[in-house]
Amino acid sequence: MFLLKLLGKLIKALSSGQSPAQLAGGFVLGMIVGLTPFWSLHNALVILLIILIRVNISMAIFSALFFGAIAYLLDPLFHSFGYWLLVDVTALQGLWTWFVNQPVLALFNFNNTVVVGSLVISLIMLVPMYFLSRGGVILYREKVHDRLQKLKVIQAVKKSWIYSVYNKISRFGD
Amino acid sequence: MRWKGLIFILAVAAIFLLLGWLLSDSWLEKRIENAGSSVVGAKVEIDNLDASILRGYLRWDSLQVTDPDDTWKNLLATGRAELDFEVLPLLRKKVVVEDIALENVNSGSERTTDGKIEKKQTVQSSQPNIFQKSAKKLQDRVKQTPAWDFAAAAKELDVDTLLAVLELESPAKIDSLQEYVTRKSSYWDSVYSAADWSSRLNNLEAEIRTLETADPKTVQGLTSALAKINKIRKEADSLKTVLAAAKNNMTHDFETIFSQTKMVDEWIEEDYRQALSLAKLPTISTQTIGQFLFGEKIVANVTKVFNILGKVRYYSSKLPQSKPKKEKPPRLKGQNIRFPGQLEKPDFWIKRIDLSGFTQKGITVSGKILNIADFQKLTGAPTEFEINGSRPDGAAIAVEGEFNYLSNAPKELLQVSVKSIPLSNVQLSNSALLPNKIAEGRGSLQAGLVTVGDSLDLGISFRANNLVFAFAETAEGSNFVTANLQEIIKQTSSVSIQGKIFAVNEDTRFTVSSNLDDLFAERLKGLMSDQIVQGRQKIREEIDKQLAPRKEKLVRFTEAKREEAQKKFGDIESRIDSSVQLVENKKKELEKRLEEEKKKAANEVGNRLKGLFN
């Protein structure tokens, strides 16, 4: 009982970000975590950001899982892009050499092709994806949400025991 | 700012720190064991690891590194050990160990559990180094050494069965060459037909006959006839030139074919060698006896050492290239790029190891190893080691060496000296001729290895004295040959073996000699030489019987085709020559007559002019 209560409080506390900007923020930060190798040190900073700033954590988790699957498929592309950045672009050699020789920064693995490739791509996508996802949320709320609630499958889900458990747990946070 | 989130993070951090403090040793122990196992290819186990990252030390109670070739034994085991490392380089992902003190170091100890692991395919460098190449060549060489089944060799050789099993390659090659000759011959036939020399020559000869029957009387007629002759001559010359070129090419083709027919003898010789190898008829010489008796044992031990040195060279001399090759790593792993720019320290560097321990023979050893690093150019020093040990009864061991990867050509030096080691239960040879057990005796070994780049020079000298062999009951499959040879061994109280391995790039030479070689060779020649010589003769006769007629047929066929082609071309050539001769004769005749007519005409004109003025 105590554990459920704690879980409920956690869920409520973590669900406090609901605006389109917060959802979009969670989405893009989760995208970074999903696209890059999970155990990279920069992801610790990103996860810290997700927890500390007011972005939607559920959206961040969903985004991380979604982009994690995409990252698996796009891994050869990240490797090739990372290799190009690390080896073929000679203008950046000095930067990478400086990175790997700095205390603590060396632990970020900025000499690994997949880390660099995926991180650079996710940073390039950061701003456009933010605006896209924010626009998507607004569009969803204005045009799609009501229609979706009327669908029989959604109504069936709401009547299921899984949803009632979820409801109970989320109310425990009150 | 999400304040509850901050509290959550602080709580998680506190839990992590607590767990880290409680469990970091076992976590680190597991990580080191996994990393070590993947390098060695067998289990690496550490007991009671005590680590402090902040204070820079690691301690353990025992370390076992399994021998990948015998997973129930340890390649290396230690007792208590202490390791001090620098903390700051860790923040740059570099491990720099100041010193390690190892106690109770030993090798070859028995394990209580199997140290085998599931090996993943590791991607090694595309080019095997000199150690890996030489180890492979030595193992192939040992496999090719005749097994010397004395019992079988003593029986009569069944050549028919042998040749039925052996697939001779020469017949197919001879047939193929014959087909080639046929094709070439057809080709020249078609060239001859296409050129249509015969009809062109007929036309030419017809024109010459026309000239011969014509008899011009006037200067004009003679001049016109001469012009025609010159034209015919030009045509004949052109025909001759073309024919000469074609005849040259045809001759050259057939010469090439004939030089290929000379290879038939080599093909037959190769089939003969294959048959001998299948019959396992050895060449009795001191060289082959040495290899037969001791080669396998030496190669097995040397291969173990080469495998270790091969790995050392692979891991130690991976120099960062100016442009690293793009690899295909496993998914989500990526490729780590090493930047050849300024790097202060190597990624991995153990400055000093002090060790003490014992061997399986109870010799107490101590020594030091200096500068183990993954990139020596940054340390500026080669890896050096020196280990010595002795026992009160005089047994001693000394190993020293240097691995130097400071220049582009990697260098390894290794000197091993073992003195007065008891040989009870040592097996000198895998051959059934030498008994498995030695009841008494002591041995000494000197070995020196020098490698520079892709060249390798290893010398081994072993001597065993005061030997008393423990012979079992009559050796299995023994016959009079084996019994005779064992008599020699029973009378031997010392064995000395010299081995030499020399390799440069792909070429590996391995020689072994021992004091038993001459004794064995002499006795074996006496016992077996007749049988071996007869066996060889039988095989030779049978192969010649099968292949000589084919060879004969090929040579005759080729000769016939060449003569045919040469005759055709030769006929045309001589016809052209006769025509040219005719033309030349006619030309001379006409020129003479023209000259005479011109003189006649000139005289007539002169006389008429004289008549006018008289």
- Reading the helices and strands of chain B in chain order gives HEEEEEEEHHHHHHHHEEHEEEEEHEEH
Helix content of chain A: over 70%
Report, as a whole number of angstroms, the end-to-end distance of chain B.
Answer: 150 Å
The most extensive interface, with participating residues per chain, is: A-B, 38 and 29 residues
Overall average residue pLDDT of chain A: 82
Rg of chain B (CA only): 43 Å
- Assign the structural class of chain A, choosing from mainly alpha, mainly beta, alpha/beta, alpha+beta, or little secondary structure: mainly alpha
Rg of chain A, Cα atoms, Å: 20 Å
Total beta strand runs of chain B: 16
On the 0 to 100 scale, the average pLDDT of chain B is 82
How would you characterize the largest beta sheet of chain B?
13 strands, mixed
| Proportion of beta-strand residues of chain B | 15-25%
Q: Kindly, what is the distance between the CA atoms of the first and last residues of chain A, rounded to a whole number of angstroms?
A: 14 Å
Q: Outline the low-pLDDT stretches of chain B.
A: none
Q: What letter string, H or E per element, gives the SSE order of chain A?
A: HHHHHHHH
Overall shape of chain A: elongated
- How many distinct beta strands of chain A? 0
How many DSSP H or I helices of chain B? 12
Beta percentage of chain A is under 5%
Structural class of chain B: alpha+beta
Alpha plus pi helix count of chain A: 8
Element layout with pairings:
The complex is a heterodimer of chains A (174) and B (614).
Chain A: H1 2-14, H2 20-35, H3 41-52, H4 57-88, H5 93-101, H6 113-149, H7 152-159, H8 161-172
Helix pairs in contact in A: 1-8, 2-3, 2-4, 2-6, 4-6
Chain B: H1 3-40, E1 44-47, E2 50-52, E3 57-60, E4 62-67, E5 70-78, E6 81-85, E7 95-105, H2 130-144, H3 150-154, H4 159-165, H5 170-195, H6 197-213, H7 219-261, H8 263-279, H9 286-316, E8 348-358, E9 364-373, H10 376-379, E10 383-390, E11 396-404, E12 411-422, E13 437-452, E14 455-470, H11 480-490, E15 495-504, E16 507-514, H12 515-613
Parallel strand pairs in B: 7-8
Antiparallel strand pairs in B: 1-4, 2-3, 3-6, 4-5, 6-7, 8-9, 9-10, 10-11, 11-12, 12-13, 13-14, 14-15, 15-16
Helix pairs in contact in B: 2-9, 5-7, 5-12, 6-7, 6-12, 7-12, 8-12, 9-12, 11-12
